[in-house]
UniProtKB/TrEMBL annotation:
The lineage of its organism: Eukaryota, Viridiplantae, Streptophyta, Embryophyta, Tracheophyta. Its EC number is 3.2.1.4. One of its GO terms (molecular function) is cellulase activity. Pfam families: Glyco_hydro_9 (PF00759). It catalyses: Endohydrolysis of (1->4)-beta-D-glucosidic linkages in cellulose, lichenin and cereal beta-D-glucans. Belongs to the glycosyl hydrolase 9 (cellulase E) family. The keyword Membrane does not apply. One of its GO terms (biological process) is cellulose catabolic process. This is cellulase.
Length: 343
């Protein structure tokens, strides 16, 4: 998949997109089927995961590099590159460098999450599902290697100018969650609930921006996935302390979505400015809407009709209204009365 309007292949956000799409199928496959889109969404995911399997030696159990990006673009370039030339992929004739990295805890963690989550989606195809899961384990082990814990974009401006990674502990928590759900192996739950992980990830720092899901910050999604484990299976000791922390932090993230608390500014048209008025805001609000609706579904499935924000109690309907309002904003309920959906 290409990114935006240029012809660069950015593997970090690509893998994140596949993870979220797979999560949506894991949770809402019946709805995709009811809409006649189940085969379509699986084709979309497989196109992405087939590509991700080619970004490293996915048949090996141990690797020493991952390909992070195809193509480059420099601001003000006077020589052909992906921003100097705006053209169809079929017409590209200029060099398109391939960037590989030997340290990528963030990128490898995200690729692991994408492949592991997709392995659940494709369990009806045992051969492909197993291939995805084996590759996910290889990427996960590469990500966790003690000698490779430098963000993939560090000292590489061709990457950092576009998708600079600010850390990798969130990807550790995120990929461990998907590896746990895909395998049932308790070692992943042990790692994710070791108190050192949420500490390093600032999971309980009560910083509003850390509750905003994006390609660079998987923390709120990871904590919701671990909350899922707690509310449905309640594994208890030795996981409970960290799982309770994730559960409480997730509740605070949901509180931050509510306009009455003024955690984030809102536009006059009704969009929450989760990225503080900077460009490209819609990705953040649709991510927030997805998490809010999932949280509400999880709680209501366990007969929990609401949650507390300090002394205030809110029904899940309030959270669903937030999610619906943000999606409707994207689809046309905005001052311009136009849909921002493309493709």
């Amino acid at each position: 998949y290409y990114d935006a309007g240029d012809n660069i292949k950015f593997h970090f956000p690509l893998a994140f997109s596949m993870s979220l799409l797979s999560w949506s199928v894991v949770e809402y496959s019946s709805k995709y089927k009811a809409l006649g889109e189940y085969d379509h969404i699986r084709d979309i995911i497989k196109w992405g995961t087939d590509y991700l399997l080619l970004t490293f030696n996915s048949s090996a159990t141990k690797i020493d590099k991952i390909y992070a990006q195809v193509g480059v673009a420099k601001n003000g370039s006077t020589t052909p590159d992906d921003h100097f030339c705006w053209q169809r992929p079929e017409d590209m004739s200029y060099p398109r460098p391939i960037i590989s990295v030997t340290s990528a805890p963030d990128l490898a963690g995200e690729i692991s999450a994408a492949l592991a989550s997709a392995s659940i989606v494709f369990r009806d195809n045992p051969s492909y599902s197993s291939r995805l899961l084996r590759a996910a384990a290889t990427a996960y082990n590469f990500a966790r290697s003690n000698s490779r814990r430098i963000p993939y974009s560090r000292s590489n401006p061709d990457i950092a100018n576009f998708y600079n990674s600010t850390g990798y502990w969130d990807e550790y928590m995120w990929s461990a969650a998907w590896m746990y759900y895909a395998t049932g192996n308790s070692s992943f739950a042990n790692f994710a609930t070791d108190p050192r992980l949420p500490k390093n990830a600032n999971a309980f720092a009560s910083v509003a921006d850390l509750g905003v899901l994006s390609w660079d910050n998987k923390l709120p999604a990871a904590m919701l996935l671990w909350t899922r484990l707690r509310v449905f299976l309640n594994p208890g000791y030795p996981y409970e302390e960290s799982l309770r922390g994730y559960f409480n932090a997730t509740g605070l993230t949901m509180c931050a979505n509510l306009r009455r608390f003024n955690v984030f500014n809102w536009t006059k048209g009704g969009m929450s400015e989760l990225n503080h008025g900077r460009p490209q805001p819609l990705q953040y609000i649709v991510n927030a809407a997805f998490l809010a609706n999932l949280y509400a579904d999880y709680m209501e499935a366990t007969k929990v009709p609401g949650w507390y924000c300090g002394p205030f109690y809110f029904s899940m309907d309030v959270l669903r209204s937030f999610a619906t309002s943000q999606i409707n904003y994207v689809l046309g309920d905005n001052p311009r009365k136009m849909s921002y959906m493309v493709g």
